[in-house]
Amino acid sequence: MKADVITLDGGKSGEVELDDAIFGLEPRADILHRVVRWQRARAQAGTHKATNRSEVSYSTKKIYRQKGTGGARHGSRKAGIFRKGGGYKVPVPRSHAHDLPKKVRRLGLMHALSAKARAGELAVLEAAAMAEGRTAALARAAAALGWTRVLIIDGAEIDANFARAARNLEGIHVLPSVGANVYDILRRDQLVITRAGVAALEARLK
After folding, report:
1. Claim to verify: residue 73 and residue 58 sit in the same structural domain
2. Cα separation values, 106 from 32, 157, 163, Å
3. Cα distance between residue 74 and residue 63, in whole Å
C-alpha cells in the first residue's frame, strides 16, 4: 500500500510504499489485548505491602483459657480479628510480569500499526528534524497539521532539536523505532512515522 509523505510545514514530499504484511493486516483485538496486558503487567511496580501475623509485635502468650469463656477460642493477640493484629493472605511485594512469546509480541506490533493505518490515523513524515529546538515553532506546526494526541516514531535516533521542542508539548510524544510498542501506539489519537522510522520498523518486523 502507498502513503503520502508530508513535511512539518504541511507540504507533500512524495509517496512511500508500506509493506502490506505489516501495515495491511486485519487487526485482531485478542492479540492486541494480550500484548497490552503483558506490557502493563511488566510496568506494574508490585510494591504493595501489608503486615501479616509473623510481622506484628505482640506477646505470644495465650490470651485466655481455651474453654469455659463462652467466646471463640484464641491463642494469640496477633490474629487479624483483633485491633493491631496481622492480616491473613496480605499483599506482599512481587513481580506481576508474565511470559508472552516473541512471535505474539511481534504480531501485536504489526496489528497495532495496521489498526492505525486502517482507521486513517497513520501519517508518514519526511523527517522529524528542526533547525532550532523551539517549542513554539513545533506547536504551530502541530496545530496546522491537526496533531492533538500524537505519537511520532523516528528512526534509530531522534533529532536533538526536535526532541527538545516536543518535550514541553503535552500532546506530542516521540520515540525511536526501537521503542515502538503496542500500548503507546493504541493510546494516541494519531500515529506519525518518519521515512527512517518506516524503514527501521519494516527491517525489525520482517
Report:
1. yes
2. 11, 21, 27
3. 7
Using a 10 angstrom Cβ sphere, with 0-12 exposed, 13-18 middle and 19 or more buried, the burial of residue 143 is: exposed
* Cα 53 to Cα 85: distance, rounded to the nearest angstrom: 7
Burial class (CB in 10 A: 0-12, 13-18, 19+), 64: exposed
- CB-based contact 15:5 (threshold 8 Å): yes
Secondary structure of residue 88 in the 3-state scheme: coil
User: Same domain, yes or no, for 151 and 86?
Assistant: no
pTM metric for this prediction: 0.84
DSSP label of 19? P
Find the domain containing 74 and state its range. Answer: 50-90
Considering the domain architecture, whether residues 122 and 185 belong to the same structural domain is answered as yes
Sign of the CA dihedral with 67 first, then 73, 78, and 83 last: negative
What would the pLDDT profile of 111-157 be if each residue is shown by its tens digit? Answer: 999 999 999 999 999 999 999 999 999 999 999 999 999 999 999 99
